[in-house]
Amino acid sequence: MHLRTRRARLLVAASTLLVPAALLASAQTATAAPSTASVSIASTLPQWLPKPAAGARSRVAVPKADAKQRLAIRVYLAPKGGQAALEQAAAAVSDPSSSSYGQFLSAPQFQAAYEPTSASAKSVTKWLKSKHLKVTGTGANRRWVGASGTVAQLDKAFDVSLSKLTHDGQKVVAPTTAAQVPASLASSVLTVSGLDTSVARKTHDSKPKVTPPDAFQNARPCSVYYGQVAAKYADDYSTALPKFNGQTLPYAPCGYTGPQLRAAYTPGTTLSGKGVTVAITDAYAWQLIASDAEKYATQHGDGHYKAGQLTQVLPKTFTDQDACDPSGWSGEETLDVEAVHALAPAANIRYYASPSCNDDDFADTLAKVVDEDIAKVVTNSWGGPEEAETSDLVVAYNQVFLQGALQGTTFLFSSGDDGDNLASTGIKQASSPASNPNVTAVGGTSTGIDASGKRIFDTGWGTVKDNLSKDGKSWSSIGFTSGAGGGFSSLFNRPAYQKGVVPSSAPAGRAFPDIAMDADPNTGFLVGQTQTFPDYVHYGEYRIGGTSLASPLAAAMLALTIEHNGGRPFGALNPRLYATKGVADDVVKQPTRLGVVRADYTDPTDSSSPVIYSVREFGRDSSLWTDKGWDPVTGIGVPNAKFLALTTPASSAVAAAKR
User: Fold this and answer.
1) Rounded-to-integer distance, Cα 484 and Cα 631, Å
2) What are the phi and psi torsion angles at 233 (to 5°)?
3) Which UniProt keywords apply (predicted)?
4) Could you tell me which residues are beta bridge partners of residue 71?
C-alpha cells in the first residue's frame, strides 16, 4: 500500500447492505420533522476530534482558523426518494433470499429512479449564493454542488467554528461542531465535504509523461515453482547456507506466471472471461502500459491483447504529482492489468485513471465507473487506515457503492499490506475503503504452486524476516515486515450477512477481509514493465506481491464466474458469498513453520551488486491469525470451483416492468 496509498461500516436491521453510522445519523436528522430553523449534518463532524475529558462540558479550546483563508467545499445531494429507499433497494437486489435478487438496474434506470432532483440542486445553489459563497459547479448526475468561500463566510453559512487543528501529521482546518443547514434543505443535503481539510491520500498538470520507475531485479537463485531449488548453498553453489529451525528451506519462486496461476486456481476449466469487462482504478496513467502488457503476455503464454481489449479512461488533467508519485502508481497499474489478463485472458480491461491519489478524486473516478456502466467488476488496489478518513468522504464513497449494488457492479478492494496497521500507524485499525460492508475485501495468502501447477498449500500472508548473520552460520529475526490487512472496523458495525460466519466472540465491527488470494511477495507474481536501469531505460521483469496482487486476481476469478453465469453480474457480492457454503477453500494455520530463503541484490537496480540472503517466514501476520473458518487474514478463504459456478437469476419480466 502507498499514500490513498497503493497496496504493491450497520444500523438497518432488515438489510444485508448496511451503511456508515455517520450516514445514517445524518439521514435520521435530515428526515426529522423540523422544529427549528436548521438541522445538523452529523457526518460533517470529524470523527478524529479528541473527545472531551471526563467531566468536561466541552473540548479543549483550539485556535480559530484564519478568517480570510479560502476553502473549496462540496454539498452532496440526497437521492431522489430519500436515502432509506436507496438503501432498501440495494439490499433487496443483493439478498439471495429476496425475490428481487439479481434484478439489477441499468445506469439510465438508476438515474431516473435516484438521481438527486434538479429542484434540490437549485435550492442548494440558491442558498449557497445567499451566503456569499461562490458556486463553482455541479457534479455528474447532480451528485454534488461545489462552492468556495472564506473561513468567515463558511462559519456563518454552516454555523460552525472552523479551527486550526493537527490530524494525521497534517496541519488542517476543521469544524469542532457539526455543520448546520436550513431545515428547508434537510431532505436535499446528504453531507458536506471540504470543511475538514484533512487529506487522505491513497497510495500507490496536464497528462503526465510518467518517468519509468527505478528498476527492481530479483537476484538468483530462485525457483521456477515452489520447492524447486533447495537453499543449501549461496549463489556460488559452494558456500553452505545454514538450516532454519532444522529445515532446509527452498529458494523463493522467481515469480508465478499466468499458466501457473490458471492451473492453480482454475484447473480443468475453459473459462477465459470472454465478454466480461473488468475495471481497474488507480492514480495517473502509465503511457507504456499497452506495449509492456503485450510484451509480457506474449512472452508468458497469456495470449495477445485483441484490438480494444485494453482501454484507458483519462481525466482532462492530473494534479498533486509531487505528493502522489506517478512513477510508483505506474507499477500498480502494470501489476493490476497483467494479473487480470493472466487469470482471465479474454476479459476486457478498462483502466480508469484518478487525477491524483486524493480521496475526492478517487470518489469521482469510481462514480465515473458506475455512470458509464460498462464494467461489472471493479478492482481497486489502494486504500489507507480508517483514522485518516473524513466522515463526509466515507458517505460519498458509500453512495457510489450503493449505486454499484443496484446496477450489478461488484467492487473489490485490497485489504492492505500492513497487517493490523500497528507497526505502520501506531494504532491497531482497519483499512478503508476495504472495511465498507458494500465492497468485497480481498486479503492474502502465501501460496505454493508445484511443478504440475497444483496449489500444494495456502497459508495466511504474514512475513517475519530473518537475516543471515555476518559469519553466515545462523539466521537472526528482525520481526514482522508485512502481511495481509484485516481486522474489525471502527466505522461500520457488523453486517447481517456476517452473522453466523464471523465468530460472535470476535470484536465488534465489520470484519474483513472476505476472501483471499496469493499476495505474498515471496510467492508472488512475475510482472514486466519498462524501468530505469543503471545503463538505460528498458523493459524488465520482477516478482511482486501485496494484496494489490490478490484483488485483481479475485476480480479475474469473478470475471470467469460472470462468464459462466451467462454474462449476468453479481453486484454486492458479500451476501451471496457468506450465504453459500463451500465457495472458498478454507485457509488454516499450517502445522509446521513454512518459509523460503530469498536472495536479493544490495542494490536492486544493479544486478552486479552483492547478493544478500534472508529467510521469509510464512503465516505470521502481526497480531492477526489464520484459523478454521473466517479469519482476519484470509476471510472465508480462497475462491474455488464452486465460486466459479455461482449464479444469479435472469432479469424477470415483472422486475423489468417495475423498472
Assistant:
1) 11
2) -135, 160
3) Calcium, Hydrolase, Metal-binding, Protease, Serine protease, Signal, Zymogen
4) 149
Cell of 381: 488496489
CA atoms within 13 Å, Cβ hemisphere of 457: 19
Q: Which residues contact 12 (CB under 8 A, 6 or more apart)?
A: 18, 19, 24, 87, 88, 91
The dihedral over CA atoms of 175, 177, 182, 184, expressed in degrees to the nearest 10, equals: 110
Residue pair 332/204 in contact by the 8 Å Cβ criterion? yes
Distance from the Cα of residue 224 to its chain's centroid: 30
Supply 57's cell numbers. Answer: 462540558
Task: Please give the single-letter amino acid code of residue 87.
Answer: E
Pairwise CA distance, residues 154 & 2, whole Å: 33
pTM beyond 0.85, yes or no: yes
What does residue 454 show for φ and ψ, rounded to 5 degrees?
A: -80, 140
Q: How confident is the model at residue 592 (pLDDT cuts 50, 70, 90)?
A: confident
Least confident of 200-204, 265-269, 506-510, 529-533: 200-204
Residues in the chain: 659
Summarised one tens digit per residue, pLDDT across range 519-542 is 999 999 999 999 999 999 999 999
Instruction: Indicate whether 207 pLDDT > 60.
Output: no
Pick the residue with more confidence: 652 or 2? 652
Task: State how far the alpha carbon of 546 is from the alpha carbons of 56, 274, 441, 519, in Å.
Answer: 45, 27, 13, 5
Q: Is residue 597 a contact partner of residue 231, using CB atoms and an 8 Å limit? A: yes
368 to 281, 325, 439: CA distances (angstroms): 10, 23, 17
As a 3-state breakdown, the chain gives helix, strand, coil percent values, each rounded to 5, of 25, 25, 45
Angstrom distances, CA of residue 327 to CA of 112, 199, 283, 468:
40, 20, 10, 32
> Would you call 382 helix, strand, or coil by DSSP?
strand
Sequence-distant (≥ 6) Cβ neighbours of residue 150 within 8 angstroms:
67, 68, 69, 70, 71
Question: Would the CA dihedral through 262, 266, 272, 278 be positive or negative?
Answer: negative
Q: Distance between CA atoms of 500 and 581, rounded to whole angstroms?
A: 12
pLDDT (average), residues 61-74:
95
Q: Please provide the CATH number assigned to the domain covering 258-644.
A: 3.40.50.200
| Residue 532 DSSP code | E
Rounded to whole angstroms, the Cα distance separating 271 from 258 reads: 14
Q: Is the pLDDT of residue 168 over 90?
A: no
pLDDT digits (tens, 9 = 90+) for 471-509: 999 999 999 999 999 999 999 999 999 999 999 999 999
**CB proximity list for 382: less than 8 A, separation 6 or greater:** 1, 2, 4, 5, 6, 7, 202, 203, 204, 281, 282, 283, 332, 357, 362, 413, 414
Other beta carbons within 10 Å of 228: 15
* CA dist., res. 549 & res. 515, Å (int): 13
The CA distances from residue 13 to 16, 28, 503, in Å, are 8, 15, 19
DSSP conformational letter for 537: E
Cell numbers for 527, please give them. 510482472
